Amino acid sequence: MNVILIMNDTLRYDHVGANGNPWISTPNLDAFAAEAAVFDNNHLCSFPTVPNRHEMMKGRHGNPFQAWRPLEWGAMTLPKALRLAGYETMFIHDTPHLANFGYGFDRPFSGWEFVRGNEADRWRTDYFSELQVPGGGKFTWDQQATHEYRNYRHMRREEDQCVARVMSAACEWLDHNAGHEKFFLWIDSFDPHEPWDPPQHYVDMYDPGYEGVKITWPSFGEVADKFSPAEQRNVKALYAGEVTLMDRWIGRVLEKIDDLGLREKTAVIIMSDHGFDFFEHGYVGKRAIYPEVVRTVQMVRLPDGAGAGSRIAQLTQHPDFAPSVFDLTGVEVPEGMDIQGRSWVPLLSGGGYEARTATVSGNGPSYFDARSPFAAALAGRFTGWSPLQVTDGRWWLVDNADPGMRELYDVDADPDTQVNLYGQEPDHYARLHAELISFLEQSQAPEIAIKLFRDGPDGIDPKQGAAVFAPGMFPDGVPMNTVRPGNVVRRD
Questions:
Q1: Is 459 exposed, middle or buried (0-12, 13-18, 19+ CB in 10 A)?
Q2: Starting from the edge strand earliest in sequence, which strands make up the sheet with 316-317, in order?
Q3: Angle at the Cα of 230 (from 227 to 232), degrees rounded to 5?
Q4: For the chain, what percentages of helix, strand and coil (3-state, to nearest 5) are there?
Q5: How many angstroms separate the CA atoms of 72 and 318, rounded?
Q6: Can you give the pLDDT at residue 368?
Q7: Cα–Cα distance between 396 and 104 in angstroms, integer?
Q8: How far is it, in rounded angstroms, from Cα 213 to Cα 119?
Q9: What is the pLDDT of residues 310-329, one digit of tens each?
């Protein structure tokens, strides 16, 4: 059996029509969902991009001890194991963090193609002496403005957009490789990750007539009040337009699969790694706390149609990807790979499945001052203990070493997580907290993480955790096409 993965960075579960969204336009994903098994509770474990890909390739929980680091030399991974078992394996992506700074996520594959120019990719170095940035500080970084200028100014047509080039490269690869006895194709599209710059007609589908500044990469944090209602609406429209653009080009790949007669022998898996906070809880950005970020897209279409049209409610996570593909292909897990995830294939075929009682999610190591792991590690400042999120599918716990920062929600009654029941439901808190401690112990988390959540922060130095996390994160500095001497970035 061939396997094709289409991974979409930052695609929210609730921004797919088939997942109950009545206003988003995702016709290709919707049609695919009708032929696939749709997982309604696939939750991120590690967060964001790089720790997530570690989990998917290794089948092991990264949270709460997998930092933002390169793929280790010699690591046994799913694509490497498939290659050694005779599969032709290919990696086509535009996700800069998987390649820049020698991160090496291409190494396990037979071949790879890196589509240049998205987000932090150190691609273009075009000169400028002064760049005017509108928006009054509502954009994320000055560095982002230079990226907009240097990289994205060369993408004039829809066909020049990164997602279009990634999916076109995948189609071309399929044209030349459909004859292989068996192949594994990993397509990693960084869209709909910010910045959101789809052609204007996609944005007009959701916010026609807007005349303000297009804030393609809004500043992160508890900053919702910095944005006017019109700006908030347009930011959401920019993202929605990017999702619809992505959907169109995914459709090209799905069409190519059918044109080449591959449907009958190819499993197709469409996934996302995490979502995005669009002003919910007053926040902009990404925190692995609430459903809008934690709940992700996962759809699986098998050649024999097993599970087609079904909705799967069981709790699954990204470390389950590797054991599931081993299960689909019949390739044995290499000795020493030490898989921690569990195959979801029985959920499609009707076999036995040991259901999870809870999932744990978090953004990087949670035993140091990591509300903003990047800023904290780089600036060396304490900003509060990082939370971990635990859920059984109904009760949703945001656990924290600081009791004053704990939150508990009944998402059946309160899907928008607005009514904090921590302190009112001690039994549910105790049960989910016990699930967290059990997860940390079984996952062989560092003792500092277990102690922090089991016993509290007394005696724990935040710098101790930061020292574990920061080394190797950015070997040559911040991964941005940065503002250089002689460059002036002016804000209105």
A1: exposed
A2: 295-296, 42-43, 316-317
A3: 50
A4: 35, 15, 50
A5: 19
A6: 36
A7: 36
A8: 20
A9: 999 999 999 999 999 999 99
In this structure, how many other beta carbons lie within 10 angstroms of the beta carbon of residue 142? 18
Place of tokens 């009654």: 413
Mention the CATH class of domain 2-341: alpha beta
Q: Domain 359-469 class?
A: alpha beta
Domains of the chain by residue range: 2-341, 359-469
Residue 424 CB neighbours (<10 A): 10
CA 63 – CA 45 distance, rounded (Å): 6
Task: Decide if pLDDT at 492 tops 70.
Answer: no
The pTM assigned to this predicted structure is 0.91
Rounded Cα distance between 363 and 389, Å, is 10
- HSE-CB at 381 with a 13 A cutoff on CA atoms is 6
- Please state the length of the chain: 492
- Tokens (6 digits) for 292: 């809008």
The Cα–Cα gap between 433 and 436 comes to: 5
Written as one string, the DSSP assignment of 31-73 is HHHHTSEEETTEE-SS-SHHHHHHHHHHTS--TTT--S-PPPT
489 strand-pairing partners: 131
User: Which is nearest to 419 in space by CA: 427, 430, 432, 410?
Assistant: 410
For the stretch 272-305, pLDDT in tens is: 999 999 999 999 988 878 999 999 999 999 999 9
Other C-beta atoms lying within 10 Å of the C-beta of residue 150:
20
- DSSP 3-state of 338: coil
